[in-house]
Each structure stands twice: as C-alpha cells, then as structure tokens.
Amino acid sequence: MAVTDPIAGGLHFDPAAFAGLLDAHGTEVQTRHAVRCACWDRRTGKPDPACTLCQPFGLLWDPAVTRKAHGPTRKPTRRFGREGELDVGDCFFSFAADVILSFGSRILCPASFIAVDDILTRGQDDRLRHGTIGPLLSAHYVVRTPPAGPDYTTTKVPLAVDGVAPDIVVGPDRLVTFTGVPPPAGTRYVVSYRTPVEYVVWEPQERREGEQAQPTRYLCKRMDFLVHAANAAESFDYGA
Q: Does this model's pTM top 0.90?
C-alpha cells in the first residue's frame, strides 16, 4: 500500500493498492447512506417527534449497497453512569477512497449476529428497533398484583414466539402483532431476537494527500447501544 514516491522522495500511500486489498481480503458489509428527514426543524435542531417515517432518529436511509471494508476495529471506550460501566461499542471502519458516508449512515455486518432485547409498550410502541430482524428467541411481560400500592408481587408471563400457535408475530415493517390473548394496552413487554451486528457512522474522517483522496475512515457506534432505551434519540447530537 505504501510505495516510494520518486518525486517527493518519501512514502506515498497508494489508494488503489488499498482498494485491491479490500477486494481480496476485506469484510463484506452493507452500507446505507443517511439523509435528514424533511421533518427536520432547523429552529430546534431536532426532528419532529411525531414523524412516522424517521422517528426517533430524524434520518432516512438509502437502499443497501454491498461492499468490502476493513473493520470493525475496536476503539475501547467505556461510559460510566448510574447503572455502572457500559461498553459503548465504538469502532472504526475503513473503505476505499470513493466510498463517502455521511453522519448517521448504517453499516451492517451480515455474517455476524448478536442477541438483543427490545422493551416495547403495547399499543403505543410496537415496532422492533433494529432494521434487520432475525429469529425471535423469546418474549414476555410482567403482571403486577395489585396494580397499585406499596405491597405487591410480580409475575412473569411468557409469550410464545414460534410453533403452530405463537402469541406474537413480527411483520415485514417490524411491527409486533398479538395473535393470542394480548397483554393490556399500555403494558410493557420484552422481545428478544437475533439481529446482524449493525453500526452507525458517528464521525466521518475523510483524508486527502494533496489533491488525491485517501481511503476513508469512520468512527462508528453499535446500533444496539444507540437504540437502547437509555440512549436512543438523546444520543444523536444533530447540530444546527
């Protein structure tokens, strides 16, 4: 990748050689370029919270493009909060010089899977948060008896996610519907499922050598960190 430049008398990074190495040995990923939703309000610097297209991120994504990348390479970063120490999942991806991704673009690794939990509210928030939904693993909600008062007990109510009579199903739009007896409206419930590992571009780092574009590098955060209830929309610092 680094060759001697006879004119400058030093080392020159060859973007074409790097692109060739990516084609031969890179990790196959799917990238989706991000654009701001039309609901964006420049006065507040935030999207419309009632928008049904982009909520809660204020971004829309182009169709996926399959390409090769170097990464993810980890950037060890830990955050401290009331809940304790949390690995925020920061990492870097590098692409060929002609690949330009904006803030909020998504990078999905189709060959790597993790298990995630979505905490939803029946009748108010019934859409799974990850863009690609794998097999459902389990689901449940909790009943509080009595519903009010200082003295109470809780009972976990499992929901079937497979078999001939599942209690819930997930449609192509990631919406959860109940086929059996649903929990009461407003009840919080948990759906566990497998999903390909996905990252969001947090800081594009484009590089140039004179007039020549160099391979691009992106600091990214893992999607399951961003869609966590404690981080979701508040994690995006959109700017003005």
A: no
Residue for token pair 């497979």: 162
Residue 5 phi/psi, 5° resolution?
-90, 110
Quote the CA–CA distance of 156 and 129 in Å, as a whole number.
23
Alpha carbons 1 and 11: distance in angstroms, whole number: 10
The pair of structure tokens assigned to 88 is: 């925020």
Tokens at 86, concatenated: 């949390």
Per-residue model confidence as pLDDT tens digits over 44-61: 878 887 887 876 678 888
pLDDT tens string 92-151: 999 998 898 998 899 999 988 888 888 889 988 888 888 788 899 999 999 888 877 788
CA 224 to chain CA centroid, nearest Å: 6
CB atoms within 10 A of CB 154: 8
